[in-house]
Every structure is written in C-alpha cells, then in structure tokens.
Design goal:
4 helices, about 110 residues, about 25% strand
Length: about 110
C-alpha cells in the first residue's frame, strides 16, 4: 500500500517543514508494517513537497496512525497536507527488466 501526502510549502518555511517531516518519517518508519518512505520535493515547483510511504497493508498503516509517537510527530504534519486522497493500493508492479505482475484489489466486491 502506498501513501502519498502532498504539501505546498513556502520557501521561507522549508527548513522548519523539513525538520518536522524528518521527525514524522522517523516515527512512521519505527512502526510495524512500514516498508519504506521518502520526503520528496518537485524539481519544477520547489514549493511542492510529498511524503511518500509504503506499507505492508492498509491495516498496518492504520494501526501505525494510532501509535503515540505518530500522533505527536506525524499526525500534525499530515493534517497540513493537501485535502485529497492519499492512500493507494498497488494493482500492478514490475521489477527492472521484469514482467508486469498484476495484483487483485483488496477492495470489497461492490466497489469498482
């Protein structure tokens, strides 16, 4: 499961935002089910940032959000992200030079 939280950060606030994002990423990385994460910034629009995390499952991500350190360090930052969908399930993947492997959705059958 992939989580993309996008942010608009004023250049004057970038240093403070980066420090807070590092603390949020560290808190998330300490939780079971965390696979990897990155703090990224747009090359074309430096005010556009993204915190990207990957999780074993939606359940591990949701459980992580309930942990004390995540509530202290990550939740306030995540609340500042753009108001848009942020959690995505992987439906296909390919390793370098490999074939595309499709995965069935975990969504309930009555959802598209």
């Amino acid at each position: 499961m992939l989580v993309l939280n996008r942010f608009l950060v004023d250049e004057n606030a970038a240093a403070a935002f980066t420090e807070r994002a590092h603390a949020a990423l560290a808190a998330l990385a300490a939780r079971p089910g965390y696979v990897r994460g990155q703090l990224t910034r747009s090359l074309d629009e430096p005010s556009h940032w993204c915190l990207v995390t990957e999780w074993e499952s939606v359940g591990t991500y949701r459980r992580a959000l309930g942990h004390f350190d995540v509530k202290v360090y990550a939740t306030p930052l995540l609340a500042e992200s753009l108001d848009e969908p942020s959690a995505y399930e992987a439906l296909a993947a390919a390793e370098p030079g490999g074939q595309v492997v499709a995965t069935a959705s975990d969504r309930a059958p009555d959802f598209p």
